[in-house]
Amino acid sequence: MENPGLTVRGQAAPFSSALRSLVNNPQYSDVCFVVGQERQEVFAHRCLLACRCNFFQRLLGTEPGPGVPSPVVLSTVPAEAFLAVLEFLYTNSVKLHRYSVLEVLTAAVEYGLEELRELCLEFVVKVLDVELVCEALQVAVTFGLGPLQERCIAFIEAHSQEALRTRGFLELSATALLPVLRSDKLCVDEAELVKAARSWARVGAVEQIVEAWKCHALRRGDAVRGAPCRRRRGTLPRDHHRFLDLRFK
Questions:
Q1: Residue 107 CB-density burial (10 A; 0-12 exposed, 13-18 middle, 19+ buried)
Q2: From CA 32, how far away is CA 46, in angstroms rounded?
Q3: At 40, phi and psi to the nearest 5?
């Protein structure tokens, strides 16, 4: 009977370090991405991305034609988050930061990278604080991340006064705000909660006016180039007064 052989492995660190050196390295690169609002160029390698991620397999499935291939534009993902995704795909590890982890988490969800998503979720829970919690709640609600949403609500309940005064609270979508307002475990009195909800509504109303002005200006042709004509995800619905009444019935 033939001996099946034995798999032996070399050291992982030099292998990972070598692959990390290829991240955003134009040498031997065969695909260029233009990412983020800053339109930063990021270099990568088709075969590696395609074998590691189904999203990139579909995106890069067409063989490039002769000559220099056109860049692949990914305008919604910030460059730093995209580079973190590449680092994970190349090395199966990633250095996360509190200030950008939610953007990396968003990219992981959108690209179907479950392992990276779980790593980001674990990191978010470890670094969750007053300034981050409402932003994390918004991401959790947007992508249906139930356990993270529950953790964020519990954190807000325990640190209600501080959380309700953050910019992140004012930027919550109506869908994300509602479970906060409906909680009966908030450590804040009713008057202060009503004040926070009204502040949220005012910010949303002002931003709707700004967006409406941009749309009007775009139609006249005198707006700043690139100004979006759409509602931001955190603005309030048209019937926002009725929405706010839901908490206090």
A1: buried
A2: 10
A3: -80, 135
Distances (CA, A) of 193 to 25, 155, 178, 200, 226: 51, 16, 12, 11, 37
Extract the tokens encoding 191.
Answer: 């008057």
Contacts of 216 (CB under 8 A, 6+ apart): none
CA distance 19 to 1: 39
Burial class (CB in 10 A: 0-12, 13-18, 19+), 206: exposed
Which tokens sit at 138?
């918004």
Model pTM score: 0.79
- What does the pLDDT look like over 132-170, one tens digit per residue? 999 999 999 999 999 999 999 999 999 999 999 999 999
Q: What are the C-alpha distances in Å from 74 to residues 111, 210, 249?
A: 12, 26, 44
Report the alpha-carbon distance of residue 232 to residue 132 in Å, rounded. Answer: 19
Tokens, residue 72: 């692949």
The C-alpha angle with vertex 108 and arms to 10 and 50, in degrees rounded to 5, equals 60
Q: Which residues contact 122 (CB under 8 A, 6 or more apart)?
A: none
Per-residue DSSP letters for 54-86? HHHHHHT-SPP-SSSPPPEEETTS-HHHHHHHH
Classify 41 as helix, strand or coil: strand
pLDDT band, very low/low/confident/very high, at 207 (cuts 50, 70, 90): low
DSSP-based helix, strand, coil % in the chain, nearest 5: 55, 5, 35
Give the single-character DSSP code of 249: -
Cα 20 from Cα 90, distance rounded (Å): 6
Alpha carbons 89 and 43: distance in angstroms, whole number: 13
Cα separation, 97 vs 100, in Å, equals: 6
Q: How far apart are CA 34 and CA 70, in angstroms?
A: 10
